């Protein structure tokens, strides 16, 4: 894991006020799930790809289909001749990037992580599926924390806190409305016609 400055105990990365250097890296990895814009699928069935990585307990078919429904991929899977037993192909090559993204999000939902890291997860989705994923994130239980990295500023309208990063530094933070009213970088990016 990243070590900010091992000689200085006042700085670093903290999880619920606990310095992560004092926590088992394995435990931390079990609490975190990453979904990126080009998710990795395996040459396994779609069912196995959704269940993949959930080592804490056996995943039921009901959990798999529930997660698939929540990300709007279930109906597509059911149109395939072998349904959930369809092989995704090497690196998921038999399905589109948008479908891979939704399967990866379903995989994350099945894992039930405490921290969900989402990097440009709707980049290859149509507007309908993007909205569905945004609504899904808004409706996550309170014990979920998710970090959304996006260039689509409209994706930040419903999040609790938005951080604007420029040249590797946080330059603004606040809710969507606060940042829009502040007339700073976020406002200039979101409303270029007003600048």
UniProtKB/TrEMBL annotation:
Coiled-coil ranges from the UniProt annotation: none
Domain ABC transporter: from-to ranges: 1-192
GO CC terms: membrane
Superkingdom, taxonomy of origin: Eukaryota
Cited SUPFAM superfamilies: P-loop containing nucleoside triphosphate hydrolases
GO molecular function: ATP binding; ATP hydrolysis activity; ATPase-coupled transmembrane transporter activity
InterPro entries the UniProt entry points to: ABC_transporter-like_ATP-bd, P-loop_NTPase, Type_1_exporter
Protein name: SJCHGC05547 protein
Species the sequence originates in: Schistosoma japonicum (Blood fluke)
């Amino acid at each position: 894991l990243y070590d900010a400055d091992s000689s200085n105990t006042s700085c670093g990365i903290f999880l619920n006020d606990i310095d992560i250097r004092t926590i088992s890296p394995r435990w931390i990895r079990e609490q975190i799930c990453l979904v990126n814009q080009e998710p990795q699928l395996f040459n396994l069935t779609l069912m196995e790809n959704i269940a993949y990585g959930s080592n804490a307990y056996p995943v039921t078919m009901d959990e798999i289909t529930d997660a698939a429904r929540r990300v709007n991929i279930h109906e597509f899977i059911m149109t395939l001749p072998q349904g959930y037993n369809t092989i995704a192909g090497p690196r998921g090559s038999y399905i589109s990037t948008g479908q891979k993204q939704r399967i990866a999000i379903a995989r994350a939902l099945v894992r039930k992580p405490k921290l969900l890291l989402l990097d440009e997860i709707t980049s290859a989705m149509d507007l309908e599926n993007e909205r569905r994923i945004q609504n899904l994130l808004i409706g996550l239980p309170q014990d979920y924390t998710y970090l959304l990295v996006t260039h689509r500023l409209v994706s930040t309208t419903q999040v609790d806190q938005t951080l604007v990063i420029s040249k590797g530094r946080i330059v603004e933070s606040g809710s969507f409305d606060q940042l829009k009213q502040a007339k700073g970088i976020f406002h200039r990016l979101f409303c270029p016609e007003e600048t």
